[in-house]
Input
Amino acid sequence: MICAEPKPVFYATLNRPALARERARRARAMLADCRLCAHDCGVNRLAGETGFCHAGTEPRFFSAQVEVSDEMELIPTFAVALSGCDLCCDFCITGASSWNSRAGFGFDAVAMAARAEAALQNGTRTIMVLGGEPTIHLPSALEFVSRLPATAKLIWKTNAHGSAQARELLDRIFDVWLADFKFGNDACAQRLAKVSDYVRVVQENLLWADAHSELIVRHLLMPGHVECCWRPVAEWLAENLPGVKVNLRVGFWPAWQARRHNELSNPISSVETEYASEIAKECGLNLIE
Output
């Protein structure tokens, strides 16, 4: 029997701070024709123009603290949540801050890195950059990384809707991509998050992330969306990313503007949760918590 070679473990190099610093400069220059996410707006953020995400040149953050609600292998993590997002998910649990790039507090990379390093010294295992969506604030996220210890384990928590330009800037920067695969079809993505061509973009980013880092894929199970969203996501992962770590999250709550959609007006039922678990087993997914 011929055994497949184990997938290599990718970790950011010891010159990550210098690499991130150089990438931060490149990313900031790219704001003059911003195409960091798949909306491909092309606006000049350096001149005050704003695109779909309404982000400017300097980010704000709405949370920066040690958290224990993420995947078991990543916690405790010092999580920095940047304000603003390039998706408009009506069910977003942090919608008021995630949608509003002006929410929260001014982000200072040097000061935040000092807080993150202090958390590491006090026993935190990882540092996580999230949002909203951190891709729209890539220059400052990279500057933040450039101030962190080269040996820190860094997590990029993303909606996986970034562009090829963003991927190039992120290469060898983060050890783990914690990526959402929210919708199994473009119709649900358009209706619930106001985004087109969603499935292709996310699949492309997940394939790239799996080849360039450790990848954990998340799917939030939503009421009424087991067949239309979870099943196609599960089947695609089984076929294209066999063995990838998958976190099927079942704690849906009708937050923010979820009640605009009848099927999202209540928490997920135990019947749908059990059915979703059966689909995961059928597909042979590598489920984690």
The radius of gyration is 18 Å. The chain has one domain: 16-287. The chain is about 35% helix and 15% strand. Residues 11 and 244 are 17 Å apart (CA to CA).
